[in-house]
Amino acid sequence: MIRPARRSAGGRPEDHAAPDPYAPPVPARELTAVSADGARLHVEVHGPVDDPPAPAVVLAHGWTCSTAFWAAQIRDLAADHRVVAYDQRGHGRSPAGRRYGTDVLADDLEAVLAATLAPGEKAVIAGHSMGGMTVMAAAGRPGFQEHAAAVLLCSTGSSRLVARSTVVPIRAGRPRTWLTRRVLGSRAPLGPVTPLARRILKYATMGPGSAPHMVETCARIVHACPRRVRHAWSQVLDRLDLDDQVRQLTVPVAVVAGTADRLTPPGHAWALAAALPNCLGLTELPGLGHMTPVEAPGLVTGKIRELVTGHVPGRLTGHVPGHVSGQATGHVPGQVTGRATGHVPGQATGHVPGQVTGRGSAHEQHDDAGIREGA
Fold first, then answer.
1. What is the pLDDT of residues 166-184, one digit of tens each?
2. Cβ(237)–Cβ(130) under 8 Å?
């Protein structure tokens, strides 16, 4: 199902230029993907959707977030990429489904890829937090393997999320795990975005140097998530174990992590970089927290551009993205007509891990950007 983009007074689609990089951009097209169990997912397509050479990028957000979380990346990439962003079930404009679990995350991503990409079309897929876990869960799926050219994993992990979290500031052990489970799995409403709420969210999810407008953006997005949905997905994250699926993620993968991340501390990123069959590297961002696409928007966007440049093959001919006709069948919404992709030069920024077991040992500090990298 497609909804037309909002238009300006002159009748033209509103563009992505705006003073606030975190204001949600207006999509060129909106559609509904139908997952395997019938759940409906809100999907947005941004950028030159009718331009065959435009390469495709697919963005999967994290727990308690929405497509608005990727606003800065969408605003930049939509100038020369076809950008697909979707609301995970129960988040944003996607209704809550009857089921929750990693299989459901994989089903939903496959449905989105089928609804927005032509058969065989490749895309760079970026996942933040639970969005990264979505990518891992889908790694062995035929629908994912058909479309994934390369992956960016931001601030995520594959297992033991509650035990490794440092949100509760005490020594690791059973008491911390017990308390963390109750904090993250709380059913309490978050309420309005108040100064206290901003301080709590900043402490738990962002680096100490995060600018007030970044904190405000994240607070409004997180507080908009229904508490029932927040609790339901917290239970999935508590039991998460995707270590086997990580080894099935054979496409090129770049990993980004903040060193001050309390929800998925850097140890998760080190473990991913060591386990991934084709890890391009790990970039550690000193002093940044869990919300890396908001805290370091330019770097995350640059990583996506770099992956497109290096791994998205030449253009395909065929359908135009976002055009859906007919009745939904199975987990694919109708007949999707659309697509082509191409190759756009990006801004290469290094992305290799420091101190990763089983990987290379070279290590350098980029003082100008404050980014720790190694090969």
1. 999 999 999 999 999 999 9
2. yes
Q: What is the 8-class DSSP label of residue 315?
A: -
Rounded Cα distance, 21 and 74, in Å: 9
Question: Residue 184's Cα: distance from chain center in Å?
Answer: 20
Reading phi first (left if > 0) and then psi (alpha if -120 to 50, else beta), residue 176 is in alpha
DSSP annotation of 68:
G
36 burial via Cβ count (<10 Å: 0-12, 13-18, 19+): middle
- Entry pTM: 0.81
d(CA 141, CA 303): 24
In 10 A of CB 310, how many CB atoms? 16
- Structure confidence by residue, pLDDT tens digits, 294-343: 999 999 999 999 999 999 986 433 333 333 332 333 333 332 223 323 33
Q: Which element (helix H / strand E) includes 125?
A: strand 123-128
| Residue 226 and residue 31 in contact, taking contact as beta carbons nearer than 8 Å | no
Mean pLDDT of 277-281: 98
d(CA 170, CA 69): 30
